[in-house]
Amino acid sequence: MPFSWYSSALAALLVAASHAAAQGPGRVKYDVRVIAPRAGAESVVVAHGRISGPEETRLRLELLTDEARLDALLAVLGQGDTVELSGGFHRRLAAGRSSRGLPLWEVDDYHRSVRLSLGGTALLYPFGAARPGRRPPLWLAITVTRDRVAGDTRPLESVVVFDSTVHVRMEAVVHPHRAAVRVTLLRGDSSSAPKLLDMVTDGPSKLVTFVLGRNQAATLDIALLSSGPALDPADSTLARDADIVCLRVVDPSVEEPPHVRCGRVNNVARTLPLSDRDTIVTTFSWPVPR
Q1: How far from 226 is each of 161, 166, 264, CA to CA, in Å?
Q2: Which residues of the chain have pLDDT under 70?
Q3: Close Cβ partners of 233 (under 8 Å, ≥ 6 residues apart)
Q4: Do 155 and 149 touch, CB atoms closer than 8 A?
Q5: Which end of the chain has fewer CB atoms < 10 Å from its terminal CB, N or C?
Q6: Is the Cβ–Cβ distance between 86 and 78 less than 8 Å?
């Protein structure tokens, strides 16, 4: 059952006194340090990540230790000298064991936000802030900046973990408004030349003709769709389907429902059977920057 944060400890999103000059729209960057206490030292960085992408890029974060787990989705909102760092969090903490010796967990879902200057640093204590006799197992220092990089639509991720006892995962979350779609038609032992289509999600479809050998050809109606809302509430909260798109293929020569194949924009080939003889092979990737 969800439980509330301690009013002054677990809810703390503290802004460090750091300031950077205002920057215009372009590319947002998250610089994340995962920090842990150590004997004989005040603290140590156990992981460091850099996530960047276009303005709408969000940061999906996963932290896992033996006694705690955090899943979070962070976003930067607003323009100008200051922005709002907002996040949705799902946290699980070890709460002892049952009479049968089974582990018990406390689960909490919540949202937090803080305003900070571009270049400023927000300190996030998802497992509780320090108090007498207790130091939190992990906390985060997140710095947000912007760069003017016109036309670059590809998100970039870089994560380095220095402590193998802590599982850390960081991902850039961007909903693709466009995608480079590579499509090949297979028919028996024949294969068409691949077609590379620059398509807009939920935009107009395209009639594409595939040539197989000297006397065989097929024209298909192809569209790129967004994946639609996630069915699982947790997946929706963490935007796990944000980079999923769907290929819809219609054969105008036959009366049958559209064929649909969904996948992530990760350049991995996927097959879509159209009939007993025809199969589409497609990959989705980020388009060339305009």
Answers
A1: 33, 35, 11
A2: 1-25, 40-41, 130-135, 149-153, 228-237, 289-290
A3: none
A4: no
A5: N
A6: no
